[in-house]
Amino acid sequence: MSNTTPVVTIFGGSGFVGRYIAQRMACAGWRVRVAVRRPNEAMHVKPYGDVGQVEPILCNVRDEASTRRAIAGADAVVNCVGILQETKFQSFDDIHIDAAEMIARLTVEAGISKLVHISALGSDSLNDSAYGETKAEGDSLVLQAMPDAVVLRPSVIFGREDRFFNRIAEFSRLSPVIPLIHAETQFQPVYVADVAAAAAVAITGDIAGGVYELGGPEVASLRELAQKAVDATGRKRVVIDAPLWIARSKAWAFEMFEKFTGGLFPAMVTRDQIRLLASDNIVAEGAAGFEAFGITPTAIDSILEEYLYCYRANGQFAANTDASKKIGV
């Protein structure tokens, strides 16, 4: 690689969204620093580019010194760090507020003009969940520190490594019934590669700073999305509404068990996640979105079966098995 090759530092670059951004930036000819707490667990990103082009580096976003080192000498910064639930080691305040503000502040101090911050759709100070409130506060602090920063707020993200459709499909293996909480809540799922493409355009193009809401071409209820996942597995399952009081009680029990085991068994669902699910997660009317990046979002149905086939009774051979049944073999 040439010494004049531009460099991008991606915090959380080995995660679900970050790895797609890393791959896209490597394909664009950039050197990519993947800033993570455990570089030895991020080696899967190295083949995204030529030898030495994509490198995991040690960084803890709760430590200013290591964060400053990760940013030094970069031409652009992307922050993909986020958590869906708190642990005894990481709180929403630590990651969504303090780390987001510090990354933005250090980016400005380093004289870097490009910062992309990955947030979440529906994050606002009126949200009843701690997740939503801290995401919103983090977004605000990022834009205060760096008004030209691009804040991307995607709806629920789907793709091969997602924890949304995969979790539903996995559960369909175990139970004939799929219980849902707030089943009528509306979502606008967005393909992970489209989010990565928007981040890449924000870095390499001339995109105005501010908030961009990213949603796919389809708005659907949680019930409808769960049914899509079940259909993709080829299984017949019943999708039902779980009583809210039972869901809250189980979430409390999960949280208590997590605390009792010292975090050894993370809660399957938390009360904060239940509160978050109560709000629709769709792009607001008139909000800037994919059109600003020249991107046409990908439909769910064009991707879903590509990675959920493994949950079918016969995996990749399900089509052959079905065909054999039809001809009586």
Q: Would you kindly provide a written description of the structure presented here, covering whatever features stand out?
A:
The chain is α/β, with parallel strands linked by helices. It has a domain at about 5-160 and about 190-215 and about 280-295: Rossmann fold, CATH 3.40.50.720. Helix content is about 40%, strand content about 15%. The protein is globular. The protein starts with 6 loop residues before the first strand and ends with a helix. Residues about 325-329 have low confidence and may be disordered.
Sequence-ordered SSE layout with sheet pairings:
Blueprint: E1 7-11, H1 16-27, E2 31-36, E3 54-58, H2 64-71, E4 76-79, H3 92-109, E5 115-118, H4 130-145, E6 150-154, E7 157-158, H5 165-174, E8 177-180, E9 186-187, E10 190-191, H6 192-204, E11 210-214, E12 220-221, H7 222-233, E13 238-241, H8 244-260, H9 271-277, H10 304-308, H11 318-326
Parallel strand pairs: 1-2, 1-4, 2-3, 4-5, 5-6, 6-11, 7-10, 8-13
Antiparallel strand pairs: 9-12
